[in-house]
Design goal:
Layout lengths: L2 H45 L12 E8 L4 E14 L2 E21 L4 E12 L3 E4 L5 E4 L5 E6 L6 H13 L10 E6 L2 E6 H8 L6 E13 L2 E2 L1 E2 L5 H13 L9 E3 L5 E3 L4 E6 L2 E6 H9 L14 E23 L5 E6 L6 E2 L1 E6 L1 H76 L1
Antiparallel strand pairs: 1-2, 1-20, 2-3, 3-17, 4-10, 5-6, 6-7, 7-8, 8-9, 9-10, 10-11, 12-15, 13-14, 15-16, 17-18, 18-19
Helix pairs in contact: 1-6
């Protein structure tokens, strides 16, 4: 190897050795970061608290109870009366359970309300009408608004023809002549009226006629058929009255009028019944159409409707609490044996027992099991992440060992090349000295 080639090779080896040292520094820094991550995970594990198993003792209390022959009462608490006397030594809080008839408002997710269209007539009363030369009609309503009905027999429109036929079928006269019908269009909706009724109004023989328009009426909630109530049974009236009283501001109250005696009268339409899980519930036209018209995925409206409000009334077990002065007397064991309340002359024998709130204890156990699952998952996640970091560290360690081996080989080759260069320099100097 010549002098120039040796020097070039030595420069290359020096650069490679410097690069190995730099890579080694980077690997060591990465391993330090991994070590810090492992330390953080370990500290996180140390901070975890193992869930504590609930004790039945925490849900076990003393209980005093008594009965008046019809109802069972339970004493919740007692405290000494500051104005102690022979007839009242404690302030006692007790409760009993009573079934109370209550109305309830609920929400049905994914109600799948189905709607059909039909023509229905709205009776306009206290109106006047005039027949115009072109066989149209000008109707003046009681509030002064004016509606103009035009002849439709000469209008050539396929959609109108379909609407007319549906209207005729809805009023039970499918063969009715178009000359017997007039109409007007408002917001893409056709309104129809019978010329006979308008002639009667114009001739002073009547002051009312029916304006017919196509409207949607609800037919099903899911697979349950809807039935509109036109009158109420005694049970339905009782149930709906309770709902109106208990659920203030609900849509169902819009279908009742409040009487002077505090009772409610149904307006006669707009409330529907349907069956759900073997029970009959109420809902309203407004609630049904609101769900039907507010699908959050318009491309699939039947399966994505908003929640449906529905109503029912039933007897609900309700805790009734009373607090008052009482005389509590003890037996030889120091436990209370009897109670007599200030507003009751009867003396009631008290039953003493140790009771456990099983429902509360079960809730606590469910929370404990969930906490254990969360704890174990956290531990497993930490272990899995630690294992991944350790594998990364092992790979870095192996790469560092490879760099150490490469650096040692480079050092050996550098010594060899340096010796060749030194020998070449020595020969050159010897030549000049000769």
């Amino acid at each position: 190897m010549g002098m120039a080639a040796s020097q070039a090779r030595y420069v290359q080896l020096t650069a490679r050795k410097s690069n190995c040292e730099y890579e080694g520094q980077q690997i060591n820094q990465a391993r330090t970061n991994l070590a810090n991550e492992v330390a953080g995970l370990f500290n996180k594990m140390l901070d975890l608290e193992l869930p504590e198993v609930p004790s039945t003792a925490d849900y076990t209390t003393e209980q005093y109870s008594y009965s008046d022959g019809n109802t069972d009462y339970y004493i919740d608490s007692w405290s000494q009366n500051s104005s102690y006397d022979d007839n009242s030594n404690y302030v006692v809080t007790s409760h009993y359970i009573r079934d109370i008839f209550k109305g309830a408002e609920k929400k049905l997710a994914d109600p799948q309300v189905q709607v059909a269209n039909t023509y229905s007539g709205y009776v306009n009363d206290s109106v006047t009408a005039a027949v115009n030369p072109d066989n149209s009609y000008t109707v003046t309503n009681a509030d002064g608004t004016i509606v103009n009905y035009s002849s439709i027999s000469d209008i050539q429109d396929e959609e109108l023809a379909i609407q007319l036929q549906r209207f005729k079928e809805a009023i039970g006269n499918p063969d009715l002549s178009n000359d017997s019908i007039v109409g007007y269009q408002e917001d893409d909706t056709w309104h129809f009226a019978l010329t006979q009724e308008l002639d009667n109004v114009a001739g002073g023989m009547s002051s009312a006629y029916s304006d017919y328009a196509e409207t949607g009426f609800p037919t099903y909630v899911g697979n349950s058929k809807l039935t509109e109530l036109t009158s109420l049974t005694e049970d339905q009236a009782t149930e709906l009255s309770q709902i109106v009283q208990d659920i203030q501001g609900s849509n169902i109250s819009n279908y009742f009028t409040l009487n002077d005696d505090g009772t409610y009268t149904y307006t006669g339409s707009g409330i529907y019944t349907f069956d759900l899980n073997g029970q009959t519930y109420f809902t309203t036209y407004d609630d049904l159409m609101n769900s039907y018209n507010n699908a959050y995925l318009p491309d699939a409206p039947i399966d994505n409707q908003s929640e449906l409000f529905y109503y029912g009334a039933s007897y609900v077990p309700t805790k009734i609490t009373n607090t008052g002065n009482a005389l509590l007397e003890t037996d030889e064991s120091g436990r209370f044996a009897s109670v007599r309340f200030a507003n009751d002359s009867n003396v009631y024998a008290l039953n003493y027992e140790i009771v456990t709130d099983d429902a509360a204890y079960q809730d606590a156990m469910n929370e404990y099991r969930h906490a254990v699952e969360v704890y174990e998952k956290t531990i497993n996640d930490i272990n899995a992440l630690t294992s991944t970091i350790q594998k990364e560290d092992q790979q870095l360690e192996l790469k560092l060992e490879q760099l150490d081996t490469e650096q040692a080989a480079i050092s050996t080759e550098m010594e060899s090349v340096k010796k060749v260069i030194d020998d070449s320099v020595e020969k050159i100097f010897n030549t000049f000295q000769s």
